[in-house]
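Appendix C reproduces, verbatim, an entry submitted by the partner laboratory led by Prof. M.T., so that reviewers can inspect both the input and the predicted structure.
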Amino acid sequence: METEDIKVLLVDDHEMVRIGLAAVLGTEDGIEVVGEAGSGEEGIRLAQEYNPDVVLMDLVMEGMDGIETTKRLLKLYPECKVIVLTSYLDDEKMYPVIEAGAFSYLLKTSRASEVADAIRAAARGQSVLESQVASKMMNRFRDNAKGEVPAYKELTEREMEVLKLLAQGKSNQDIADQLIIGIKTVKFHVTNILAKLGVEDRTQAAIYAYKNGLAE
């Protein structure tokens, strides 16, 4: 008795990525790419049309990002398996999408065969994590188990950069100029830093940075 092909939907806002994935997966036995979406919104619409078994999901897209798309998709189709395929490994994206229900997490540096194997594994109900992702999650789990997780461990790489500059007495405009980001983005990061560190103002954040050896 022949088994049905695994129906896969691609959601990525880069057309060349979708074309490459569709071409590669099209050569794999038992896998059928049923649709390609260039945005999260289109991904939800095509999922309703094709009812895929597995969705390969990019994280950073214009409009609805991969985290929100995953949440909405799994609310509609809880049996669907979302495999994140991204270039990003930072905590502010990785943990939220896993918490949203992503089944597996791969980097775009993965080989084509690894992506195909992850799709087959997902269809069998088995998760696959890229080795760096698994390592970060294990470290986080061990730290939590010991109850020794410093507050600064919750900061993203960008937030750490902002904190170090903040500790040097840099203004928001100085930080924006040095990191080549918008002033609103700097303010957003500063707000997150204060909340995560549990401090009330920039001065306390700077003191925290020096006490924990995060700034010169």
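The first strand starts at residue 6 and ends at 11. Additional entries are available on request from the coordinating office.
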